[in-house]
């Protein structure tokens, strides 16, 4: 890996507390941050980057998404959640092919890199194809192959638990450690208890975690009480899924006993407020979760339910919604929101050294242009990132010191071809005519 010197940047440090250092140098070496400020004697960079007017900060980690659902973005609009899922999404996914997932994930990777995301937790189908896109993109990822546990004949692509554990065995730790895997049962409302127990055993056997949807509505709570005599969180706890690493998406309908279970070591909750708003769902009680000691990280969810993969917007919405809901302007300060989008997400994905800007940490960082009108005057750059920044402000993205975005241009992905192939496959999935297909000149 090359040595790089980023010169004259403002640096937003999030550890041990939020602070700003103006006009400093950042030395990158061997995929890590060697120094912030004084460059070590004898450090000779292979490359220099003039970063005056740019803000360096940790890259964002998207704690829950369905990346390849970029192909059905805009296909199921203005519908309540049950109709959105049953009448549109699952109908389109019934025609899903393995290569659709590759191109859909590649499309999502383009979008996420441009939005300053350096790692994402994906929960979807045909994850061997998603892994290929991750390796090519240079991003970090936690990939979980979604299963319903109802038999191969009722799974997308006929997948089985044996096939998904083989995927874990083959891919966990690949791409120089950028790729991690988890087992992905859909949810306790879809998966039979005996299947969830089998998933837990396999996760323990392979030393990986579990990524699932959990307690998304009061209706699910009532159904679980009627069927199992327990709330969904207590049900998965009884089955042992909270005993090891667990990434639980949503956890919207929770009581105090649920929060106590979710606060166990190794459990992380992904909060995706834009989806809850767009599908008119109940809002997860983020302030209560944090107050109970639950490890929460921010996620976008899939582009089909929130339209984009913009964690900057998710961070902004998370703060605004909780301030309004609690009628407390001091709720979720800027430092907390930045931590939920960076360090907390990195930990949820299994990259505990990432998500922070400090000497010795992996060089997973981004540079944002603060010379735009919506940043000026630059009184509080941290607040400007949370409440004003847009993906178009992201100029450079580094993962393990490798540039994935240089001066606004992707360096690892053929964006033009990806746009063409993704749209062609999306139109087939949704039964739309190919006459509107964009041109590709490659």
Compact summary:
By secondary structure, the protein is an alpha/beta fold. It contains 16 helices and 17 strands. Strands 1, 2, 3, 4, 5, 14, 15, 16 and 17 form a nine-stranded mixed β-sheet that branches. An eight-stranded parallel β-sheet has the order 6-7-8-9-10-11-12-13, sandwiched between helices.
**Rounded mean pLDDT score:** 95
Distance between the termini: 30 Å
Strand % is 15-25%
**Helix/strand/pairing category:** alpha/beta
What's the helical proportion of residues? 25-40%
Helices, by number, come to 16
Q: How many DSSP-defined strands?
A: 17
Structural description of this entry:
With 442 residues, the protein is α/β, with parallel strands linked by helices. It is built from 16 helices and 17 strands. The strands form 2 sheets. Strands 1, 2, 3, 4, 5, 14, 15, 16 and 17 form a 9-stranded mixed sheet that branches. The chain has an 8-stranded parallel sheet with strand order 6-7-8-9-10-11-12-13, with helices on both faces. The two termini are 30 Å apart. The mean pLDDT is 95.
Features:
single chain, 442 residues, alpha/beta, 9-stranded mixed beta sheet, 8-stranded parallel beta sheet, 16 helices, 17 strands, 23% strand, globular
Secondary structure blueprint with pairings:
Elements: E1 4-13, E2 19-29, E3 32-36, E4 47-50, E5 54-58, E6 60-65, H1 81-93, H2 98-114, E7 117-124, H3 127-137, E8 140-147, H4 161-171, E9 179-185, H5 193-206, E10 209-214, H6 218-228, H7 232-238, E11 246-250, H8 256-262, E12 267-271, H9 273-278, H10 286-291, E13 295-298, H11 303-306, H12 311-326, H13 334-341, H14 343-349, E14 365-369, H15 381-387, E15 394-399, E16 402-406, E17 409-410, H16 415-429
Parallel strand pairs: 1-4, 1-5, 6-7, 7-8, 8-9, 9-10, 10-11, 11-12, 12-13
Antiparallel strand pairs: 1-2, 2-3, 5-14, 14-15, 15-16, 16-17
Helix pairs in contact: 2-3, 2-16, 4-5, 12-13, 13-14
């Amino acid at each position: 890996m090359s040595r790089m010197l980023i010169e004259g940047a403002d640096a937003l440090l999030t550890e041990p507390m939020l602070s700003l250092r103006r006009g400093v140098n950042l030395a990158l070496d061997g995929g890590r941050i060697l120094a912030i400020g004084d460059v070590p004697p004898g450090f000779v960079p292979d490359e220099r980057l003039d970063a005056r007017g740019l803000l360096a900060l940790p890259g964002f980690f998207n704690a829950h998404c369905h990346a390849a659902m970029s192909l059905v973005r805009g296909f199921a609009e203005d519908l309540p959640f049950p109709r959105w899922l049953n009448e549109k999404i699952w109908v389109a996914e019934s025609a899903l092919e393995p290569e659709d997932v590759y191109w859909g994930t590649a499309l999502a990777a383009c979008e996420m890199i441009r939005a300053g995301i350096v790692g994402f937790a994906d929960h979807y189908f045909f994850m061997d194809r998603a892994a290929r896109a991750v390796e090519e993109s240079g991003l970090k990822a936690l990939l979980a192959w979604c299963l319903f546990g109802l038999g191969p004949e009722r799974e997308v692509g006929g997948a089985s638990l044996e096939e998904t554990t083989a995927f874990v065995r083959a891919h966990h730790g690949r791409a120089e450690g950028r790729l991690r895997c988890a087992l992905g049962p859909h949810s306790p409302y879809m998966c039979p208890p005996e299947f969830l127990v089998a998933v837990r055993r396999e996760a323990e056997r392979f030393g990986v975690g579990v990524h699932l949807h959990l307690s998304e509505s009061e209706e699910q709570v009532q159904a679980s009480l009627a069927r199992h005599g327990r709330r969904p969180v207590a049900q998965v706890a009884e089955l042992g899924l909270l005993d090891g690493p667990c990434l639980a998406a949503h956890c919207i309908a929770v009581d105090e006993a649920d929060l106590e279970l979710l606060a166990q070591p190794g459990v992380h909750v992904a909060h995706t407020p834009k989806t809850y708003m767009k599908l008119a769902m109940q809002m997860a009680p983020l302030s209560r979760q944090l107050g109970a000691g639950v490890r929460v990280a921010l996620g976008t969810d899939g582009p089909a339910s929130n339209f984009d993969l913009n964690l900057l917007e998710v961070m902004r919405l998370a703060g605004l919604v909780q301030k309004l809901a609690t009628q407390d302007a001091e709720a979720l300060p800027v430092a907390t929101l930045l931590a939920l989008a960076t360090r907390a997400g990195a930990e949820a994905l299994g990259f505990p050294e990432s998500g922070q800007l400090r000497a010795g940490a992996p060089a997973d960082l981004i540079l944002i242009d603060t010379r735009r009108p919506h940043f000026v005057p630059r009184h509080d750059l941290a607040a400007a990132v949370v409440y004003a920044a847009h993906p178009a402000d992201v100029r450079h993205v580094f993962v393990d010191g490798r540039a994935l975005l240089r001066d606004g241009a992707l360096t690892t992905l053929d964006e033009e071809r990806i746009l063409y192939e993704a749209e062609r496959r999306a139109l087939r999935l949704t039964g739309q005519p190919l006459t509107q297909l964009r041109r590709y000149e490659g």
